């Protein structure tokens, strides 16, 4: 089969690799019908995730069809259309029993495209299939469903829930890429008073407005002052970091109000300064985290009911064998306007964002 293989920082290739097979009784082999790219994949290619060894097939998000299962798999069978989650869960360790699947100590957690071969391929072996794939409703198209493998549960769990978004809150989201946009969409479920989006790209800020942001600012437009002006100088109740850069994290800590919450979602490859000399007296809560994906079934139901705008984040579609071109487009999002890049499935041109409901 063909797959995208990581060969070291800055080096990948779409090449022949051996077909995957069932190794453990809890495995499933899934034919990849639709796959997407993630900002974490870009971090890997840059060399920011040293645990990823050369020779690894990348990718941790997919929609596909089960073609083979191990003897212990009970929840799916060959022929089922499924979502492949970015997190695998053994279901037996302490953390899995607490539904903290991202911290699985039984061989799961974030393993696909990280510690074992991933989904940017024609087929993928999924460990612990009973807890790591989700049967999909027929009403949800592949290109929508694939966004619920990672970005929507990540934004919801690590951003909205960890940040404790409540009705009436002022919420600031720094970074209006796919994760930041999903954070805006899922934060709206909790009826915040105002959502403020911050990004460098005007196209992403326009997308943020269409998905529910009430105010936007670029880094050159003094977002700290905007937040202060809109909150009578207090700062935002919840600030989410959705970039993964030190300057973005430090901006978040300057925009939060006393007693507020900073939820770090971004993947960081470099140290960020934690200004405790300023924060210690403000009663600020800071959270970090890897997604657990316990919310995925609920989010899929919300998407199937039209309550979450999955398709609105897809801007580019490619055939699966154009993986390297898709990476190039995604990595130059500032020039290409890329949000989510999807490969496989029925092909269309760029998808326009729907107008925001009034």
Automatic annotation (TrEMBL):
Q: Which GO terms describe its molecular function?
A: oxidoreductase activity; zinc ion binding
Which portions of the sequence form the region Disordered? 1-20
What CDD domains would the database entry show?
Answer: FDH_like_ADH2
Do you know which InterPro entries this protein is assigned to?
A: ADH-like_C, ADH-like_N, ADH_Zn_CS, ER, GroES-like_sf, NAD(P)-bd_dom_sf
Key word Coiled coil present in the record? Answer: no
Q: Which cofactor does it need?
A: Zn(2+)
Query: Which SUPFAM superfamilies does the entry mention?
Result: GroES-like (SSF50129), NAD(P)-binding Rossmann-fold domains (SSF51735)
| A Pfam family reported for this protein in Swiss-Prot or TrEMBL | ADH_zinc_N
On whether Acyltransferase is a keyword of this UniProt record, the answer is no
The record places domain Enoyl reductase (ER) at 8-343
Q: Which UniProt keywords are listed? A: Metal-binding, Oxidoreductase, Zinc
Q: Which family does it belong to?
A: Belongs to the zinc-containing alcohol dehydrogenase family.
Q: What is this protein called?
A: Alcohol dehydrogenase
Q: Which organism is it from?
A: Streptomyces globosus
């Amino acid at each position: 089969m063909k797959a995208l293989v990581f060969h070291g920082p800055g080096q990948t290739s779409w090449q022949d690799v051996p077909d995957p097979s069932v190794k453990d009784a809890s495995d499933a082999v899934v034919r990849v019908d639709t796959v997407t790219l993630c900002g974490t994949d870009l971090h890997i290619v840059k060399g920011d995730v040293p645990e990823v060894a050369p020779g690894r097939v990348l990718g941790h998000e997919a929609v596909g069809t089960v073609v083979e299962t191990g003897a212990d798999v009970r929840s799916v069978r060959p022929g089922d259309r499924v979502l492949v989650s970015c997190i695998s869960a053994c279901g037996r360790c302490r953390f899995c029993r607490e539904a903290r699947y991202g911290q699985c100590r039984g061989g799961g957690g974030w393993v696909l495209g990280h510690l074992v071969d991933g989904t940017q391929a024609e087929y993928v072996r999924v460990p612990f299939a009973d807890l790591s794939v989700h049967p999909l409703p027929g009403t949800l198209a592949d290109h929508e469903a694939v966004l619920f493998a990672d970005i929507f549960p990540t934004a919801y769990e690590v951003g909205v829930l960890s940040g404790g978004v409540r009705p009436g809150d002022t919420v600031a989201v720094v970074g209006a890429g796919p994760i930041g946009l999903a954070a805006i969409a899922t934060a709206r479920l909790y009826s915040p008073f105002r959502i403020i989006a911050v990004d460098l790209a005007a196209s992403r800020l326009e997308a943020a407005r269409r998905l529910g942001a009430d105010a936007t600012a670029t880094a050159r437009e003094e977002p700290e002052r905007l937040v202060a002006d809109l909150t009578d100088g207090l700062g935002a109740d919840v600030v989410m970091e959705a970039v993964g850069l030190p300057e973005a994290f430090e901006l978040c800590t300057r925009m939060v109000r006393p007693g507020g919450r900073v939820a770090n979602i971004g993947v960081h490859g470099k140290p960020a300064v934690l200004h405790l000399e300023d924060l210690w007296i403000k009663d600020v809560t800071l959270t970090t985290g890897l997604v657990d994906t316990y919310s995925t079934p609920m989010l899929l139901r919300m998407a199937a009911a039209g309550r979450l705008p999955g398709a609105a984040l897809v801007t580019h579609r490619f055939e699966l064998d154009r993986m390297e071109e898709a990476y190039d487009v995604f990595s130059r999002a500032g020039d290409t306007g890329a949000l989510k890049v999807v490969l496989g499935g029925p092909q269309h041109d760029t998808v326009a964002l729907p107008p925001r409901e009034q």
